[in-house]
Amino acid sequence: MGIPERKAREKEQRRRDIIQTAERVFLAKGLKKATMDDVAEAAELSKGTLYLYFKNKEELYAAVILQGVKVLRSMFEAAVDSAQSGIEKVRAIGRAYADFHKEHPDYFDAVLYYQTQTFDSSGRDSLVAACNSQSDETIGVIAEALKAGISDGTIRNDIDPSKAAVVLWGQTTGIMQLASRKGNEIRDWHHLNPEDVISGYFDLVEYGLKAE
Amino acid sequence: MGIPERKAREKEQRRRDIIQTAERVFLAKGLKKATMDDVAEAAELSKGTLYLYFKNKEELYAAVILQGVKVLRSMFEAAVDSAQSGIEKVRAIGRAYADFHKEHPDYFDAVLYYQTQTFDSSGRDSLVAACNSQSDETIGVIAEALKAGISDGTIRNDIDPSKAAVVLWGQTTGIMQLASRKGNEIRDWHHLNPEDVISGYFDLVEYGLKAE
DNA sequence: ATATTTAATGACTAATGGTCATTTTTTAAA
DNA sequence: TTTAAAAAATGACCATTAGTCATTAAATAT
Questions:
Q1: Which residues have C-beta within 8 Å of that of residue B95, sequence separation ≥ 6?
Q2: What domains are there in chain A, each with its CATH number?
Q3: Do B116 and A116 touch (CB under 8 A)?
Q4: pLDDT tens-digit profile of B139-170?
């Protein structure tokens, strides 16, 4: 009885194909502007078929977001590996986030979209759940850097690495969002360069974490 | 020639009425779910008339957002006045943001929407520009608190109050956004209470700013 | 060769932001 | 007061698009 297995494989493959096409279309036209018809045409399938494989448009968004979060996580990991001391690792992570924004603006927008939304009742095997899992791991990378810093004495030992990792994740996203969305306002109203705001943020974080 | 003046007054009044109605409708149904037809019906006007007074739906959103930002700013001001030392003022602002989220969740969502969007070519007299102005003043309140802290010696004097105010605004928004949108994930994946994350954040900020 | 199950289709619906020719109301002129 | 011109308001209409479902096509089993 190898036929059911083969069919399951084919179905899974088709699903993957759709995701890949959707990612191309969404990143090219922007999450909001790309329509399901666009995706269907690019995938050389009817729109109805898309809905056989994905509950709705948001599920397809989630697939793109997932790729973005994965890229971000891997950049964080590379950053951690590139630095020696714990405090340097943390700063490297910050720089990695800024690089991510610069090098992958589309993915950045996707990840920001994920951060902004509340996805209700995300089935356990859904793509949204996978995004949550990736986010968790990403925060885990931060936590590891903090722990390394506490071990090597470059980060004060009275902070809770797990909690601080979540805090850093949230506040850094806030800063990147501000720089990305309100860069012009920052310049016009506050006469500040967004880059300077970001580096000022890094300085403040470092000061808040550093031992001694 | 008093007629043009009277007509201008009436037009302005009608505009105000529409804004007030729109605010009621948007806050009741949620920004996304409320339709222009809803607003038109509530305002006892035809939909076409709405578009005589506002360019599009986003302009009406902006009116609601403006109210929200005004409330937030006034809460910040009250917080600053309630505290003595500079560092206490900063913490009070943080608490005020958390209270704003709790007491005015609809306005909080509106402000968050504003923070997330990039409004292109916002005419100088538009509501979006007014939001920008309010944001500017809100950040100004933070900057004043920081300056007070530097003066009274409770905040270290090597920070740039203007820059740090923007940084605080951005990162605090990020934390509030995380707590608001990903509270469940924080609980499920990291076994942390969002409230604890927020207070942990406040602690970290205080440590980063405090003198001595 | 036929029946059954599975996969795919695309015409259709519903919702909604936005428009515009037409109507109503107000003001100015005769 | 009557009529013409200007301003304000209307709502039927359009375009877009997410999502559905009866129908068709393809694959599999009998």
A1: B79, B202
A2: 1-54 (1.10.10.60), 58-209 (1.10.357.10)
A3: yes
A4: 999 999 999 999 999 999 999 999 999 999 99
